[in-house]
Design a protein that fits this description.
Blueprint (H helix, E strand, L loop, with lengths): L1 H35 L4 H15 L12 H16 L40 E8 L7 E7 L7 E7 L1 H7 L11 E4 L30
Parallel strand pairs: 1-4
Antiparallel strand pairs: 1-2, 2-3
Helix pairs in contact: 3-4
């Protein structure tokens, strides 16, 4: 019985070594083929597209790779919101962050890398837009800045045709600093719980779609 078991273990070991050898040979052949025939531009673009699809699953309400400002407000008003966005500033040692991912002062502390806190959190401002041009008014953009343990900071901008024209040259990028989150399309925005001091003034007061 012992001899039979040793024989079976030996056979399995040989099969395992053979399988490892075949995989190694396949890798060597693939590398040699890649060196002999580098991927074309079309191949690289296809690979990049597949990589983005794998890395970026569907997220409601922001489809993969789409800018949330353009989806919420259209390109004209979305670019305006980006154009007028206030530069993030430190207040009490804290930078504005996304309350969904950072609720402690330590994760909002100023850091040395552009666009990030010391703990690597992305600087974020929430935004709402009201277009009053149909009533001969301006486009009103309100920026809401959250810092853990503090009251929300509100910054309001108004714009007309001149600002819209100036903003039209912008290109919206997902990597822009700060990140801007449209409140009108933020899922469950009225149901997030905050301590009394941090309670957002905008809760239960914004429409589900931008006005105008």
């Amino acid at each position: 019985m012992d001899a039979s078991r040793r024989l079976r273990r030996g056979a399995a070991s040989v099969e395992y070594l053979g399988l490892v050898g075949m995989i190694g040979l396949a890798v060597v052949v693939a590398i040699a083929a890649l060196i002999a025939s580098p991927p074309t531009r079309a191949d690289r673009e296809l690979g990049e597209m597949l990589g983005r699809r794998i890395a970026c699953p569907p997220r409601y309400p922001i489809p993969c790779g789409r800018n949330p400002l353009a989806l919420a407000y259209g390109f004209s008003r979305g670019k305006l919101a980006r154009y007028l966005a206030p530069a993030p500033a430190t207040l009490g040692g804290e930078l504005p962050v996304d309350f969904r991912y950072c609720r402690q002062a330590s994760c909002a502390a100023a850091g040395t890398k552009r666009g990030l806190t010391s703990s690597g959190r992305r600087l974020t401002e929430f935004v709402s837009v009201e277009d009053l041009r149909s009533a001969d008014g301006p486009v009103r953009i309100t920026y809401w800045l959250y810092r853990p343990g503090r009251r929300w900071q509100r910054i309001e901008r108004t714009a007309g045709d001149a600002e819209l024209a100036a903003a039209s040259a912008l290109r919206l990028n997902l990597e822009d600093v700060p990140a801007l989150v449209p409140l009108e399309t933020l899922p469950g925005r009225d149901h997030y719980r905050f301590p009394p001091l941090e309670r957002p003034p905008w809760q239960w007061s914004l429409p589900s779609r931008p006005k105008g």
